[in-house]
Amino acid sequence: QKTMVSGLLWYAFFGLVHELYHLLAAYYLLGNVFEWPAAHELVTQAVFGRFIQVSNDEDIHHQLWIIRHAGWILSVLTALMVSTKAAVRVGCSKSLKHAAMLTAFDAVASDLFSWCPRTMGMGVLFCGNFGVLALNPAWNDSDAVFDLLGRMIQITMMRGAQSGGVIMWDHSTVERKNSNPQQQQQPHNHHATVQSARKIKSSKPISVRVIKAKRQDLSKLLSSRVKSRGTNAWGQKKKSIRCFLGHTRFATSSKATLEGTHPHQWSPPEQRRVYPLDDDALWSTVPISSPSKTSANLQPISRKVSNYITHNGDFDFFRIHGRLTSISKLQKWLAVATNHPVPAQVDSACIAGLIDILRTAGCWGLSLRFAMLLGVPGVTFLNPDSTSRMASPSYQGYQEVGRYFELALSDYCSKRQISLANIRENPNLRKELCQTINNEFHHQATFQTLRLDSGEIEEQHFSLIVDATVEAFFRNDLFFATKFFMANAVGSFGIMVTCSEDASRQICLAARGQPMSVAFYPKKGLVLYGSELAAVKAGLSFEMPGGDLNLEDVTEVTEENITQATCRLSLDDLSGEVVLLDWGPSSRKEIIKPPDEGVASEVAQSAQKSMLSVTVHRESGMERDRLHLRDSGTLTMLEGNDLLLPLPSDDGDVIQNDIYEIPTALERVQYDWKKDGTNRRTAVTLSNAIKGRLLGRMDGSIPLSPGTVDILVTGCEVSLWLSEQFASDLQKALPNLCIRAMSSNKILGILGQELAVPARGFPISTVVSDFHDTIVMIVSQSGGTFAPSAISNLLQSVTQNLFLVTSEWDTQVGKRLLDMSHDGQHFGHRGRSQSRIFTTNIGLRTAEPCTISVAATHEMLTQIFLYICASILESPELTAAARATVTQKDLAILTSCGKASIEDLGAIVGERGTTESRTERNLRGSGKLWSRHVLENCKAMILSFVYVVVTVTTGFPVITALHHAVNGSDEILYVVRFLDSLIFFFIPQIFILLIRVVEGRDLRHRMGTRTIVVADVPWVAQAVEAFISKLFACAYSMATVNVISGNPEDHLVHRHTHRVVRGTLLACGRPDGRLSSLTSAESAVNLAASQACSIVSVLGGSCEMVTIGHNPAALGLSKQDIFLPTNRAPFLGERIRNGNFKMRQTALLNRQKFNYQVGFGRRAKTKRNSFLEHIHEPRNLWSDTNSIKAFYLDVHARGRRRSSTVAVADAIQQMGWDKLNQSSNLDLEVSIGPLSNEPVGDESLPTLTTESAPTKSAVARRKGGSIVYRDAEGLLQIRGTSNDYFGQDSKFTAPGSTSSLAFDLIEEQSFVIELYENRIASLERFVAMCVMFYEMGQATQDFVSKMSLGLLGYRMDRTHSILRVATTASPVSGDAVQERMKVLRRQMRDRRAASTIQVAWRRHKKKQIKTLLRIASERNAKLHSD
What we know:
Layout: H1 2-30, H2 39-49, H3 61-82, H4 85-90, H5 94-112, E1 128-134, H6 144-156, E2 163-177, E3 197-211, H7 218-229, E4 241-249, E5 270-274, H8 280-284, E6 301-305, E7 307-320, E8 323-326, H9 327-338, H10 347-358, H11 364-375, H12 395-416, H13 420-425, H14 427-440, H15 443-447, H16 459-475, H17 478-488, E9 489-499, E10 506-512, E11 517-521, E12 526-530, E13 567-570, E14 577-582, H18 601-609, E15 613-618, E16 623-624, E17 635-637, H19 654-660, H20 662-672, H21 678-699, E18 711-715, H22 718-733, E19 739-743, H23 744-751, E20 775-779, H24 786-794, E21 802-806, H25 812-821, E22 837-839, H26 852-873, H27 876-882, H28 888-909, H29 918-954, H30 958-965, H31 973-999, E23 1010-1015, H32 1018-1031, E24 1041-1046, H33 1052-1056, E25 1065-1070, H34 1079-1093, E26 1104-1109, E27 1120-1123, H35 1132-1137, H36 1141-1158, H37 1185-1197, E28 1206-1207, H38 1208-1215, E29 1235-1240, E30 1243-1248, H39 1256-1262, E31 1268-1270, E32 1276-1278, E33 1291-1292, H40 1310-1347, H41 1377-1425
Parallel strand pairs: 18-19, 18-20, 20-21, 21-22, 23-24, 23-25, 25-26, 26-27
Antiparallel strand pairs: 1-4, 1-12, 2-3, 2-4, 5-6, 7-8, 7-9, 9-10, 10-14, 11-12, 11-13, 13-17, 14-15, 15-16, 28-33, 29-30, 31-32
Helix pairs in contact: 1-2, 1-3, 1-5, 3-5, 6-7, 9-10, 10-17, 11-12, 11-16, 12-14, 14-16, 20-26, 20-28, 21-26, 22-26, 22-32, 23-24, 24-25, 24-41, 26-28, 26-40, 28-40, 29-31, 29-40, 30-31, 32-40, 34-37
């Protein structure tokens, strides 16, 4: 027992020695950067945790590498020393030697091979902003703040997250003593001073930065690292940490490296002589005069100062004394100015370097450096454009000169009996202090320590430098530094700035070109900020430890109670805005009130002292310490706001959950349009704007030039593809309006750049396109994509008719459009009268492969289409002006089809936990089948591994084992080994063939990565391609696919059939060829698909095709045909064609009789059998596309104009067509009325004897009222049809002078059939493909995870970059948007003036012409009278 105890003690001792080796190496290499840990921390971490925190700085990797390896080298040497004979003679016990050897082995394993990695400062062994300010002490004892931080990271990383970091400030109170002046004299002062010790708050930075691997979850990785650094050795949160300031990065200007990961700092923590701004006692105390002329209580202290920033956006230039400096020059300039090399080759690091120079308050050395570099306008001692080698004084020189200012300040305060705070608040006192310094010190004697030539500082420059230094000492705080940077920087910025001197009470936020928001939670004692609006809503889901405070709800926000309301402040990212958050004791506004009874008194007292003030500065020049009512557009209530949607859960299978929710979400969208809500109010605003355009066209105020765009629909990626389909449909419905769909990036490149980016290959330019007062519809599912967000600002210069289609009301683009609608309104009621946003109300969706967001956006655009058309058709004048081709009947049919589609989608996606739907089973079965194609390489690799391991280990490959089993001759041993070698060589191919045989798949397919070809209409093909590509983004190369897409009605054959090989997987969407307008389309699709499948190799293999469509007709060359359900009523053509072959013959015969009766038939006698001569149809007529096409061609060939009006319902009832499909054994004669020959003119025509009058239901349907109507609340509604088939209550006209054998009423439904395909049927095919390919991806993901025991698992709902929302400029920058808005406003003002003059001149000219004609007519009349 004694030996065991002594061994453990020696093991602990050598562990402590090992960690001391790390610390000594760090002290030697890092110097001032290194901080010795406290004794108790050293012992606790080294003995119990077997680790030590070497440094908080991650940018000195070379030194840290040496520190890491120094530990194990010295530990090994120590173990060797105690094992020598000399050590044995001294009396070293065995337990000592064993402990030393074990420690050496432990050190080698951890430090050299990283088998047991430890924490030795982040970075040794191993794009969006967000932050949490936990102001209430109740958060100090809880780990819930780490969960909250992880949730914010999870939402923020949707903006792109390849790496991330967090800076925490550990605020502790330590006793600081000023240096003894008896040992170190002040310049020009030989008097001793009385020193006193005082407790000063010190902020210690804890920086955490990580780079995630391809399949890692950044939110979990970063939050776990933050938690490990933010807790003590016992796993408890450090109470002194209140701020968690972070950033997730999507690399734009450089690779995703640790050096480029935020938070950034330029200069490492360095000792500075400072008058701490957070030491209120120091700044508010009036000094006591003493004979020594030096105040004992006005002495600076020496402590480490560091600055950190996080930045979202791009930093392009910085203006130094009026001249723009590029980033490359700025990096060199900063390296010389700060005497520190460039820490990282990223633009954001330069911001940190500039903050080092700008944030100088309380430090004379830093203030002097700022004055000489940037403080004196037009005067600089370090020119960034200098071609020669730049040189700058070291900081020691600045600090030595700063001692003169310290002495002058102390004497001045003692004489005047004033405090530092008095001087800071009084500019006259600062001027007087400057004059005192100028009079007391000679400029050459004072500045000689800077080692500058005597001619470099002239007398007048010395005075300016002194003035600038004094101002910088008192005024250059964190707020000033951020404002100065934003005023001179060029680029897009969403930044957070923090400094160790202010970290205990302040942070600064700024935005221009990038979003930034701050949320206040007074009941929870929290302040959250972030670049993503949804991220700051995370506080709603968390409760303060011990329960939220019982504060009175603020229903109406005023400038006095903003921080007492649960609300969100959004910075003005267009004009540029800087916000200072100050929770120090001198702040004036409360955010935390005393808690209720029962809470600890200590917490209550701390809560009373916790205050928050918000100071805002706009770059337009407005600065204030309170918010005014004019800022209503920037505030949003977070509690009691029914327009805000909760954050979605990220648990479970998010893609599957999204797919299951599609029918419900689309049903909600349709239901929302039936009532008065935000979408209906926005629709009214939109329809009024369109009506205004039409009226402008009619009265000539809007020119009819080819480039004039009436409606512009824009977006990016999937949103753009949906927009293009919507614009195409609306253009066909309203031909006289010019409707265009354009990429937001192209618009931004043309209008938002000083040097325009030409839209090559597209007819778009500033000359061709006229966007003056254009109606703009921005489609953005997230509402935060960079290009749509930028043009939502940019296009305000040319039009006020801006609208947004998005997933929820609370988005970045939506906020900007709301600001347009709420200028001057009270922000307490914000959102109640908004009229520019269409929302699908599906909320935030974290899955990168998009399903429900695409379907809901498409459905929303369908509802907008219906409303726009209905509002136009409501007025005959507007209908004529738009030359509308769509009719009210079309809208009724489309509405009914949309309702029926919900049931179809329910059958396609199925229900959670069941597979009752046959369609769902077929789709998922095809997906699983194709997953087997994808996984065969992975399975073959596993089997090959097993085979090699077993055969090599046992020494008996298959042929060799058989040879031994049969006691084969040794003469053929080499032949046996040769055969085994062949098996080893072809073992993967052999196993793939065996797998295919077992699974019953085609043996002739190629062996390798599969290629999936998606064939459908453009928006479906592109959206599904993106969906599959993102599903397999993180898949391994042994189980992945290549994805391409094409339009089978256009370029599929030309683009992809030359690459069709054995095993290519073709997913083809087929339009419903049963409908007259789509018969030829399906024939074209079938032809293209058949051509692709007809390409056969020598072995006879070809591609494998699965078709998806509504027409239940099998395609001969397909592997499987999946038929989607059809719950809509049949169209007229389908109704006529329903039934068996004899019934169709009867219908055609009855049609002949009817044609003769109403005047369609020929004037000559026609035999009854002549109608049946054309009809030689196969049994599968109604499912065979070619036969259907032949039928419709016959109908089309015989079509003629109509003049007389007849009710179709009556005709079909009289002819017996309404009984078709009711019974398969229907008597042929029940619907044939008696015929009689009566003379009509010169010829006799068969007449129809009516057997019965029209039914009451048919009459009631015809008297049901208008299809487009206003309900009791005045809302525009579309009455769907309740007929048995579409067209049942239609009427048609037939001419009396011409005749035809064709009953061509079905031609009237051609356009609505096309709309049905574009708006409904294609959506159902998209959802079906998502179900199929989801199952394929899920089976692949599960197999890889299970076979690797979770080691190779990945989440297919995320990609490598996690770029769910592309908020960074790509590929077009938005840094010139604000300036371009001014230019466009001037151009639009000039154009409006010219247009007004032209219109006035035309009216005047027209009036003059009328006057001249009247005068001429009067003269002619007078002449005739004479």
